[in-house]
Amino acid sequence: MASQTEENYLKSLFNMANEAGEVNISELAQQMQVSMPTVNSMVKTLQKNGWLIYEKYKPVILTSEGKKEAALVIRKHRLTEMFLVNKMGFGWEEVHEIAEQIEHIHAPKFFERMDEMMGHPTVDPHGSPIPDKLGRIQEVNYSTLSQCKTGQLVVLAALTNSSTEFLEFLNSRELNLGKELKILSKESYDQSMVVSFKDHASETLSEKVCDRLLVRVVG
Amino acid sequence: MASQTEENYLKSLFNMANEAGEVNISELAQQMQVSMPTVNSMVKTLQKNGWLIYEKYKPVILTSEGKKEAALVIRKHRLTEMFLVNKMGFGWEEVHEIAEQIEHIHAPKFFERMDEMMGHPTVDPHGSPIPDKLGRIQEVNYSTLSQCKTGQLVVLAALTNSSTEFLEFLNSRELNLGKELKILSKESYDQSMVVSFKDHASETLSEKVCDRLLVRVVG
DNA sequence: CAATTTTGTTAGATAGTTCTAACTTTTTAC
DNA sequence: GTAAAAAGTTAGAACTATCTAACAAAATTG
Ligand SMILES: [Mn+2]
Ligand SMILES: [Mn+2]
Ligand SMILES: [Mn+2]
Ligand SMILES: [Mn+2]
Fold first, then answer.
1. Is B218 touching A (CB cutoff 8 A)?
2. SS3 content of chain A, % helix, strand, coil (to 5)
3. pTM score, whole prediction
């Protein structure tokens, strides 16, 4: 059984993998906030457990068992976040830190019960998909708001970044998932966009913000 | 901040302390399911943290800081058990193992929210008192059913033992907290008691069972 | 009270997760 | 295509939580 530390590495590996499924040691070290030698010894351990492929001086690659292990931890994380928001009244900006701890609880029934109580949600409070019990993750591809054209009508569906600061910024503009936005104009100098919400005056959103908003085009 | 291991030791120390507040190393080793040298080194660590008083060859004694630390972990444990039963539909026999893990989560708001959602409960699903936010524990003294006399009317209020097996035994007899029992007779040979429940035929309860049932005498 | 048993301590080891310092290999830049 | 920079590895150490073996102190018992 994976330790808490191992579970955190697996999660990062899963999220960081490129198209080829590769992750560099230095990037992983930065992500995990530990030194490269620490990562070096941990990847050897993860390899011994059959969760990744490691060859000296090469980027590491999760095995399918590693991916499944990671996805099941991510499932617990996202179910927890959704439970905290939907059943316990937390804001979407408060739940990540708590879920970071609860994801390591070994109690299948506890997460089963959360899942049931919420009617088997498919996404977490930030729009990220919740893997199923077998660790399968449903891929959805939204566009970023930046990629959209003037005149389009879009619905905010997910985020590419869920830092507390960004979530608090979105709260301050009442930008929550499901919100309909109409793209009024795009400034070619700095890529900022002017959008209007239903029942709300128009807003200017910087390129940085537009890059972090994932939307479904509805018109 | 106490590690998970330290928190588990503190909890055991708190629960095992005799009238003088003393706990023997050998008893603690047995309780924690570790060797005596392991306990020996841990009590030195706990002493360094100011949570207990240790002198060679003497039983250890929690300091008031140690007692508070312990009580706050017990608070998290019991709030969790109550939440699992009242808000998530678990049986009282299923919650201890889960709470044993969740009690180590560092997220004051999470437990605050549980407490609020339940309207600040004062006891856990097994009738044990929930310490307050300052680690103060309200002492209640019930009698065991064994101590009661024939003819008395009592209400089941708590348990001296909450093992899964005992809880399952109580489930099988529909003996839950709040149940009114009338003591019909007591067998002097083996101390077994015959009791009748409201809306139920009479039952014989062994001495072992009667010792584990804490009751409030109501008539 | 002396012998035995029980309780507690020390020493030394292991496993997990982390570090820094020193070194090597690979990649990038001129 | 060499030199410098970046990435990765090894060695050696620390800290936590645990163990067993050996020893010492305290408690019990005849
Ligand atoms: Mn999260
Ligand atoms: Mn985590
Ligand atoms: Mn419990
Ligand atoms: Mn515990």
1. no
2. 40, 20, 40
3. 0.95
